[in-house]
UniProtKB/TrEMBL annotation:
Keyword Iron on entry: no
Organism in which the protein naturally occurs: Silurus meridionalis
Cell compartment(s), UniProt: Membrane
Keywords, sorted A to Z: Glycoprotein, Membrane, Signal
GO cellular component, one term: membrane
Protein's name according to its UniProt entry: SLAM family member 8-like
Transmembrane regions listed in the UniProt entry: none
């Protein structure tokens, strides 16, 4: 019994060590990369080992093989969505996927067998995104009488692309699609750059602007505001009196206008 159990323990121990070693080998022999590519660009899947040391290669997309290589038969291509878009390398062992499309996003595997040993499996998690081609800046300047300056509201937008970040530079350096600040006439013309970027591209738009009193106004003259606020603070009833007076004046104005029209017609 002791010998029996000793034998079983020894076997189990070897099996456990073998499993752990296998797990370690799989982890050590796998290289994973995350890759971003723009629509219409290419993906290079070239083996980084001397050609004479490579026995065979299998290229897979989402676990399905689409191309292969052996020293004896060179390249082979299987039916796949990449038909007509695969370029075979001559000096090295490799495949290039051309004219990438959104449906090409996924997991690419490159399994390489060497003449003397098996090389690490290459795993590429690939994301295909739209490049940024156009960046537009929308601006709005409004003259504020109370400060003798312009309120500036600017927005930056990149259309047709995803995961976009924005950066303003020049007169102001800040992140974000929207930018608000105050600009005085004394500063004359200022230049702002908006750079939009995502994982596969970047593009910049430039805008020059200046402030003057001819911009649309946003508030009443300061003296009027101070007068009204003082009266309201002194007695809330004065505010009601002012509103009623304005309405009566408007009504009287309309009546006088109608009377004048009647006299002219007569």
């Amino acid at each position: 019994m002791k010998d029996y159990y000793g034998y079983c323990f020894s076997f189990s121990g070897k099996l456990l060590i073998g499993i752990l070693c296998s797990m370690y080998v799989v982890s050590a022999d796998t290289n994973t990369m995350t890759v971003y590519r723009a629509i219409g660009s290419s993906l290079d899947l070239t083996v980084n080992y001397p050609k004479e040391s490579v026995s065979s290669v299998r290229w897979k997309f989402n676990e399905k093989q689409f191309a292969g290589y052996t020293q004896s038969h060179a390249y082979s291509q299987q039916q796949s969505q990449f038909a007509g878009r695969l370029k075979e390398e001559n000096d090295k062992v490799g495949i290039t996927v051309q004219d990438l499309q959104p449906q090409d996003s996924g997991m690419f595997l490159m399994l390489v067998d060497g003449t003397e040993r098996q090389y690490p499996t290459q795993i590429f998690t690939v994301y295909i995104e739209n490049p940024i081609t156009v960046v537009q800046i929308e601006k709005n300047l409004t003259w504020r009488v109370s400060t003798n300056s312009c309120d500036v509201d600017m927005k930056c937008a990149a259309f047709g692309a995803e995961s976009v970040s924005y950066r303003w530079s020049g007169y102001r350096n800040v992140n974000g699609a929207q930018l608000q600040f105050s600009l005085s006439p004394a500063e004359e013309a200022v230049t702002l750059n908006c750079t939009a970027a995502n994982n596969v591209s970047s593009n910049t738009s430039i805008e020059t602007l200046s402030c003057n009193a001819e911009q649309p106004k946003t508030d009443a003259p300061l003296a009027v505001l101070k007068l009204v606020s003082s009266l309201v603070a002194a007695s809330p009833y004065l505010l009601v009196t002012i509103i009623l007076g304005v309405k009566c004046y408007g009504t009287q104005g309309d009546h006088d206008s109608q009377y004048a029209d009647t006299v002219i017609e007569e």
